[in-house]
Automatic annotation (TrEMBL):
NCBIfam families per record: PRK00393.1, ribA
Binding locations of GTP: R72, V73, H74, S75, E76, Q93, E115, G116, R117, T137, T172, K177
Pathway recorded for this protein: Cofactor biosynthesis; riboflavin biosynthesis; 5-amino-6-(D-ribitylamino)uracil from GTP: step 1/4
InterPro entries the record matches: GTP_cyclohydro_II, RibA, RibA-like_sf
Keywords, in A-Z order: GTP-binding, Hydrolase, Metal-binding, Nucleotide-binding, Riboflavin biosynthesis, Zinc
Protein name: GTP cyclohydrolase-2
Cofactor(s) of this protein: Zn(2+)
Database matches in PANTHER family: 3,4-DIHYDROXY-2-BUTANONE 4-PHOSPHATE SYNTHASE (PTHR21327:SF18), GTP CYCLOHYDROLASE II-RELATED (PTHR21327)
Length: 234
């Protein structure tokens, strides 16, 4: 085993064109839902450390195992994934995706370090500040001089190639994400909705995603009345 600093292109497994993504190492990741394997990759151009969680035999190259892989392409959200923020649905979606994969016994989560839809954590905090003062999630990005969504999914192609995965059943509410992956030549056999984590704090945010970013979230779920009915029924 080598320290990260000592890894050179000639000593580590390579993935993707021009070796832009380097596989570093993998380890077991036991969770309450399943014992996943965690794979770590380094993106040379940015120094970003991307992760892939896997469960079961994935490779579509094996003819006995060529069914699409249940997958989530998750964009980093430190506030939602690690700090329990209810401003968004990210943490709940990540948890549900892991549960779904555990139930299926096979699947993968591509955890991309594209915090804040690609604007980075500090700019996301600026955007949240603007939202505290009334802006919506799209307007806040624009007020800061960014497009609404700056994410780039091209790394997914390299990551999937590493695992010899060519077909996905993708857990997402975002048709633009499906289209971006399809445009990269990734086969998406099915889009599986991932509607969870709705709270009074994120109804407006989710409503904006539905209206301005094209996310598929049934309108009746976005009313505070529905939420309080669900709470009463629980
Ligand atoms: N700039 C900005 N980024 C946000 C905001 N809220 C969440 N994010 C980021 O948005 C990304 C997740 O994108 P979402 O729009 O929630 O969902 P999605 O990935 O497009 O679609 P799903 O697959 O359905 O989750 C993460 O990188 C979050 O950090 C916000 O108000 N402003
Ligand atoms: Zn989030």
């Amino acid at each position: 085993m080598q320290l990260l600093e000592n890894i050179t292109p000639s000593t580590a497994a390579q993935t993707g064109p021009l070796n832009r993504l380097e596989f570093i190492d993998a380890c077991k990741l036991p969770t309450q839902w399943a014992n996943f394997t965690l794979h770590a990759f380094l993106e040379h151009a940015t120094g970003k450390e991307h992760l892939v969680l896997t469960l079961g035999e994935l490779s579509n190259a094996n003819s006995a195992n060529d069914s699409p892989v249940l997958a989530r392409v998750h964009s980093e959200c430190l506030t939602g994934d690690a700090l329990f923020s209810q401003r968004c649905d990210c943490g709940a979606q990540l948890e549900k995706a892991m549960q779904n994969i555990a139930k299926e016994g096979r699947g993968m989560i591509l955890y991309l370090r594209q915090e804040g839809r690609g604007i980075g954590l500090l700019n996301k905090i600026h955007a949240y500040h603007l939202q505290d003062e009334g802006a919506d999630t799209v307007g806040a990005n624009q007020a800061l001089g960014f497009a609404a969504d700056l994410r780039d999914y091209s790394l997914c192609k390299d990551l999937l190639a590493h695992f010899q995965v060519s077909q996905l059943c993708l857990m997402t509410n975002n048709p633009a994400k499906v289209e971006a992956l399809q445009n990269l030549g990734i086969e998406i056999n099915e889009r599986i909705p991932l509607i969870t984590g709705l709270t009074p704090h994120n109804l407006r945010y989710l409503g904006t995603k539905a209206k301005k970013l094209g996310h598929v979230i049934p309108e009746h779920l976005l009313s505070s009345q529905t939420l309080s009915n669900q709470k009463d029924a629980a």
